[in-house]
Amino acid sequence: MDSPKELLEKLASKNVLSRDEYLHLIKNRDTISDEAASLARTVCDAIYGKRIYIRGLIEFTNYCRNNCYYCGIRSENKNAQRYRLMPDEIISCADRGYELGFRTFVLQGGEDMYYSDDILAPLVSTIKQRHPDCALTLSVGERSRDSYKRLKEAGADRYLLRHETINNTHYGMLHPKEMSRENRMRCLDDLKGLGYQTGAGFMVSSPGQTEEDLADELLFLKNFRPQMVGIGPFIPHKDTPFADRDSGSAEMTLFLLSLIRLTLPDVLLPATTALATVDPLGREKGIASGANVLMPNLSPTGVREKYLLYDNKICMGEEAAQCIECLKTRVAKTGYEIVTDRGDHIGQKRL
Ligand code: SAM
Ligand code: FES
């Protein structure tokens, strides 16, 4: 086996390693994380330059039919105060975001069947008509292929659906038996096949995850080639079965960001809110490790504290305008720049 340093160089030049080689890197991360970050940053700069893309996140419902063991808005959490934003409120959030320089909106929510295709498709079309120069991303969980097709035809450009774990047994530890990894993967295949810029991803150090699983995650990502990858540390929520579990670390998350960048050089890779929750400088360190996307919150402040997937989430009180100013300053200090741009995947032809 090559040394960790040689493996990193091999990854940077070939963009793939074997499972054992990824595993060896993960086990030796302490010795080479700085080098991995610097290589990842060089690769990202060569493709996307010093530009950091922003996405305006609109968390429009915390109703959810699912009961994932890790998630604070799971259906069995009776302490969650449920809310739904109506289409006109969602449109106002997007309008406000546009004024602030956002050119991508992400509509994210629990799997709330109130938002049938008959409600969601016209909403997508309206936002796209009002802001034809913007991209619209959906993140509303598992739906049928027909539903994804209709939403795509209505104008949705991208879809975020983390696969959560590639390991079937691990999937069963994180989810009740009504949910299946097969259906999650079916959804991801459908989304990609329909032409969405598709985002997969997983939580780092979710209960039961092993280093071997992480090596398998990297191989899966290489094989599936999503345009976006969302990873963030698992963080416990007090009203879930995993309330007493430990959070994932910033260090492991940052190292994996670097390995993902080296594996999929042109991927759109956010430094997530969860990362900034476990480390106050998580977003800056995420960028330094190869991330090139930030997803600040555009939801009205009144509902933010209700969209609690995990405890101690940041930016609960700040208005969107304050967050964007804060982020611009933070990003500028790292030598990068937040840009007003749709920020499409580089391989994606604009329609
Ligand atoms: N319902 C949509 C879906 O399933 O894709 C979007 C919302 S879902 C809550 C968004 C993501 O939050 C999940 O894919 C999961 O990875 C992440 N998440 C949920 N609970 C979390 C926790 N306790 N810590 C960190 N991330 C969490
Ligand atoms: Fe929200 Fe800094 S990004 S306050």
Which terms summarize this structure?
351 residues; alpha/beta; TIM Barrel; 6-stranded parallel sheet; 3-stranded parallel sheet; 14 helices; globular; binds S-adenosylmethionine; binds FE2/S2 (inorganic) cluster
How would you describe what is shown here?
This protein is α/β, with parallel strands linked by helices. It has one domain (10-339): TIM Barrel. 44% of the residues lie in helices and 12% in strands. It has 14 helices and 9 strands. It has helices at 4-14, 19-27, 29-48, 87-99, 117-130, 145-153, 168-174, 181-193, 211-224, 250-263, 273-278, 282-288, 301-304, 320-333; strands spanning 51-54, 56-61, 104-109, 135-139, 158-160, 197-204, 228-233, 293-294, 337-339. The strands form 2 sheets. The protein has a 6-stranded parallel sheet. Helix 1 packs parallel to helix 3 (29-48), helix 2 (19-27) crosses helix 9 and helix 3 (29-48) crosses helix 10. The N and C termini lie far apart (46 Å). Bound molecules: S-adenosylmethionine (SAM) and FE2/S2 (inorganic) cluster. Residues 296, 315, 318, 322-323, 326-327 line the site of FE2/S2 (inorganic) cluster.
Q: Please name the fourth-level CATH homologous superfamily.
A: Aldolase class I
Strand order of the largest sheet: 2-3-4-5-6-7
Give the CATH architecture.
Answer: Alpha-Beta Barrel
The CATH topology name reads TIM Barrel
Strand content range: 5-15%
Percent helix, as a range, is 40-55%
The unique ligands bound to this protein are: S-adenosylmethionine, FE2/S2 (inorganic) cluster
* Residue runs with pLDDT of under 50 for 5 or more positions: none
Round the mean pLDDT to the nearest integer and report it: 97
Helices and strands, in N-to-C order?
HHHEEHEHEHEHHEHEHHHEHHE
| Number of structural units classed as domains | 1
Gross morphology is globular
First-to-last CA distance: 46 Å
The value of Rg in angstroms is 19 Å
Sheet of most strands: 6 strands, parallel
Number of helices: 14
